[in-house]
Each structure stands twice: as structure tokens, then as C-alpha cells.
Write a structure and sequence with these properties.
The complex is a heterodimer of chains A (403) and B (90). Chain A has 403 residues and is α/β, with parallel strands linked by helices. Helix content of chain A is 34%, strand content 16%. The longest helix of chain A has 18 residues. The chains are: A alpha/beta (403), B alpha+beta (90). Chains A and B meet through strand 5, strand 6, strand 8 and helix 14 of A and strand 4 of B.
Chain lengths: 403, 90
């Protein structure tokens, strides 16, 4: 009798009941009352969330709503991974950050916002790129991993990590008006590599920084990721595992396709070739860091200042702007000819391979792809403007806006 | 004719259309007719040996053609094929 009462007191002091889930305080019961009213969540569900943890990789467009909703929902331990700083151009969609945080580390900015939203949770900030060297260490304590990154190398790394450690990978990806979401949980279904065994080659798929994205789109897809994470942590509902959601904001359509485990999958198949983590920077091509613009060899690039010098001394240079026509309203270079990247291959005959050509776009990535197209067609007197027209706006003509 | 739905990243190669009619009675024939009509699409979908790139996924209705008969999957006139691209943005 005495022993039992003592044990009860000790358990209450530790904040645990019989089933080892943490108790909710009076304040938490009030805060989460709308969850407690739902039978599928209830008191035990809310205690599960308090005991659970989620790692959010990327605190950008997708990571912002995921982090805000998981913190608001009372997920007790949240990890944030990012290496970037908040920039004005992030604020159109990365809603966890505010104007006052421009220039600050994204993980610090997000952590401050999350703790303001919910001071009772633990938020760990990892201000480092997510790589094969640190991924296992960072992810180890977390129940669920949320992929909010903006590049292929990290997406493959997250997938392999989740397969190798048996954790669910809550996936979301966006492009302009279209989004994808799924749960890749190799224990029960297909992984990301089952669908996409290999990443696309360099430059074939533009990033948001080059292609643009509707600011609300990551809100929709990120909120779906947060929903899937909460459902997994609570153990309720039917997840997106085995299904890929295809969302189109312009059509307002939500469509699904079935995903099956690939028996030959290199990482989750019965005879895996991939048994440890590797980095994909070398062959993945698409800039692995959002601000690593135009990563060609220096011999095929020239800087804005070098181009300005050449133009000033009267060099005959054919300037080709490979951006989309609507971008010319933002900024343009005098004398440049606009041939959008997608139309370049059809206009090769109009170009003279004997003439010096300089290609440019917004920040150097699309024009690097254009350079590859010209090179493969035999052009040799061609260079890419490093950093694109934005570099020109920063270094040469400050009257032009940077976008 | 069967219809092929094209995702945004590839629309600039088909004059901005969201879907195009394709001719043929198999997926292979449909893809060949598409790439003949829009040659600049070819390097995005096939490698130098002419095989579909591993990151290109084609779905007939809800099913990946890899789970059906691959490129030999038969196509009916009312079928809808969909290209599902690799997307990295976040």
C-alpha cells in the first residue's frame, strides 16, 4: 500500500503515468483543448505528440509550415536543419521567418518563432549542411524525418538515411504551381528511389531560384507533410505511403498515382547496393546549395566586371539572354537577344560559332545549361556570365534590381 | 487518341501545352510520336541510347507503366498517360 502510493507520487513527479507517456500540465490541457476533443487524438494522443520528435530538414518554403504546425500541435521535440541565412527573397513563402530576421541564421530565426508559438517544446537547431558525415548523428533521436529541402543530393541522402534507419520520410516537393507529396516508409512500402532510382543529370530540372514558385504552394504541400507527420506520430488514419499526391494549384486538382516497391531498388530492395550514406554532390549536377550558382569550370565563365570591360573596349560580343520573356520586364541588358532556354536548340542555326557569345540568365544556372547545349553543338567561343544578370546588377549597374 | 499530360517543367518544349494527343497503340509508339513532333523534348526523356531515363515515370491512369508491361503497355483511344517528373524544389 505504502509502496504503491510512493510509486504513484514518484511517477507524477517524473511527469509520467502508467503507460510512460508524459503528463500534460493544466496549461497544456487548455492549449490543446481542440485536440483533446477529437476522439482520434484525445488526451493520450496529445501525450504521444508531447513524447514524440520530428526532424525538419530545410527551413524554407516547405519547412516553414511544417515547423509551425508541428510546434503548434505540441510535438515535444523538433529538430531544424539548415545552413542558410534569411534573405528578403525568402519572405514571399518562407513564413516561419520575418522581416526583422533578414540576415540571421534560418535555424535561429525559425527556432525563435517556434518557441514564441510554443515555449513548452524543445527545438534543436542544426546550422550545418545535411551530409553523409552528420546525417546519422543528427537524425538519430528523431521519430520522423521531414524532407523540406530544395535539392536532389539532400533528397537522396534523406531517403537513404530513412531506409537504413527504418524511419519514415515525409516527402514534399514543389515547382511553380505543382507539388508532390508522399510518405516513403521502406518498412511498409516503396522508398523515393523506388520511384526515382537516379537523379536527373545536371541542369535538366531547374530549381525554385531559377524557375520561381507560387508563394502559397509550399504552404499547401508543407501543410500536407505536417498532416502526414502528425498522423504517423499518432498512429491514425491512412497515410500517403504507397501513393504519390500530385497537386496543381492552377487547376486546383489533387490527383494520386500508386507507388509500388521496386524489387530492384538499390537501397530498399532485397539485394541492396547502397548500404551506407553517400553524398551526391559530384554527379547530381543541380546546384546542391541554392546559392552555388553556375558551377562550371572557370574557363567557360566570365564575371560581370570582365564582361563590362570587354563591352567598354568595344569587343564584338553577342549577348544572349536565356531567361523567359516575362523576366525582361524586371531587368535586361542593352543589346542582348532573348532566346529562352527551352527554345535555344531550335535557334542554333541563327548563331555564328565564329562570333564570341556570352550567355546569361538570372543567376547563371540556366545559362550554364545553355552553354552545354551550344558546346555540344560545336560552339567554342562561348562563355557563361557568372552569377547572371543579378551579378551584373550588383557589380556593374546598380540601377538594376536584383531578384 | 490517347492523351499525354505534361508536367510544368517540360511544357516549354511543347509550346506551353498542358496535355497533347499522342498517336499509337502502345506507350512506346505514343512516346515516339511525341518526341518526333517535339524533338527538343527528346533529351529530357531519353538517354543517348534512346532508352527512357530512369527518373522519367509514366503512369497510365494511376499505375506506373513499370508495374504494367513497360513501354509495351497497350494504349486505348481514351487512355490518359501522365509524365511524373523529378522535382526538387522546396
Amino acid at each position: 500500500m505504502i509502496d504503491s502510493s510512493l510509486a504513484k507520487v514518484l511517477n507524477i513527479r517524473k511527469g509520467f503515468r502508467g503507460n510512460m507517456l508524459p503528463e500534460l500540465s493544466r496549461e497544456e490541457i487548455l492549449r490543446y483543448s481542440r485536440h483533446l476533443l477529437i476522439p482520434e487524438v484525445g488526451l493520450d494522443g496529445q501525450r504521444k505528440l508531447k513524447a514524440s520528435s520530428a526532424l525538419i530538414i530545410g527551413t524554407g518554403g516547405l519547412g516553414s509550415p511544417v515547423a509551425l504546425y508541428l510546434a503548434a500541435a505540441g510535438v515535444g521535440h523538433i529538430g531544424l536543419v539548415d545552413y542558410d541565412v534569411v534573405d528578403e527573397s525568402n519572405l514571399q513563402r518562407q513564413i516561419v521567418h520575418g522581416t526583422g530576421m533578414v540576415g540571421r541564421l534560418k535555424v535561429d530565426s525559425a527556432r525563435t518563432r517556434l518557441l514564441d508559438l510554443n515555449p513548452a517544446i524543445q527545438v534543436d537547431a542544426f546550422n550545418e549542411p545535411f551530409t553523409s558525415a552528420n546525417a546519422m548523428r543528427i537524425a538519430e533521436p528523431f521519430d520522423v524525418i521531414i524532407d523540406g529541402t530544395d535539392n536532389f543530393p539532400t533528397r537522396y541522402l534523406i531517403n537513404d538515411l530513412c531506409v537504413l534507419t527504418g524511419k519514415p520520410n515525409v516527402y514534399g516537393a514543389i515547382y511553380r504551381f505543382e507539388g508532390q507529396a508522399s510518405v516513403f516508409y521502406a518498412k511498409e512500402g516503396p522508398c523515393y528511389r523506388c520511384l526515382f532510382p537516379e537523379p536527373p543529370p545536371p541542369g535538366l530540372v531547374p530549381s525554385c531560384a531559377d524557375a520561381g514558385v507560387l508563394g502559397i504552394l509550399p504552404g499547401t504541400i508543407g501543410t500536407i507533410q505536417a498532416t502526414e507527420a502528425i498522423k504517423f506520430l499518432l498512429g491514425i488514419g491512412s497515410s500517403l505511403a504507397g501513393r504519390l499526391l500530385l497537386y496543381n494549384a492552377l487547376d486546383m486538382s489533387f490527383e494520386y498515382v500508386k507507388l509500388k516497391k521496386n524489387p530492384n531498388c538499390k537501397v530498399c530492395g532485397p539485394h541492396p547496393e547502397i548500404t551506407g550514406l553517400v553524398d551526391y554532390f559530384e554527379f547530381c549536377g543541380v546546384p546542391s546549395l541554392d546559392h552555388a550558382e553556375g558551377s562550371l569550370g572557370a574557363g567557360w565563365e566570365l564575371t560581370a566586371l570582365q564582361l563590362a570591360k570587354k563591352l567598354k573596349r568595344g569587343d564584338k560580343i553577342r549577348l544572349i539572354d536565356v531567361r523567359e520573356p516575362h523576366e525582361l520586364a524586371i531587368s535586361c541588358l542593352e543589346g542582348a537577344q532573348n532566346i529562352p532556354l527551352g527554345e535555344l536548340a531550335a535557334h542554333l542555326e541563327e548563331l555564328d560559332s565564329a562570333q564570341e557569345i556570352v550567355l546569361f540568365c538570372k543567376s547563371g544556372t540556366r545559362s550554364a545549361r545553355a552553354l552545354e547545349i551550344l558546346m555540344s553543338a560545336g560552339f567554342r567561343k562561348v562563355k557563361n556570365l557568372r552569377g547572371g544578370i543579378n551579378a551584373w546588377a550588383r557589380e556593374v549597374d546598380r540601377s538594376l534590381p536584383v531578384y | 487518341m490517347p492523351t499525354l499530360k505534361i508536367p510544368t517543367p517540360l511544357r516549354s518544349y511543347i509550346n506551353g501545352q498542358t496535355e497533347v494527343p499522342v498517336s499509337g497503340t502502345t506507350v512506346e509508339q505514343a512516346m515516339q510520336s511525341l518526341m518526333t513532333e517535339f524533338p527538343s523534348l527528346r533529351p529530357h526523356l531519353t538517354n543517348s541510347a534512346g532508352q527512357l531515363r530512369p527518373f522519367v515515370n509514366l503512369f497510365l491512369g494511376e499505375d506506373n507503366i513499370k508495374d504494367l508491361k513497360g513501354l509495351d503497355t497497350p494504349l486505348g483511344p481514351d487512355d490518359i498517360l501522365r509524365l511524373v517528373p523529378s522535382v526538387a524544389g522546396g
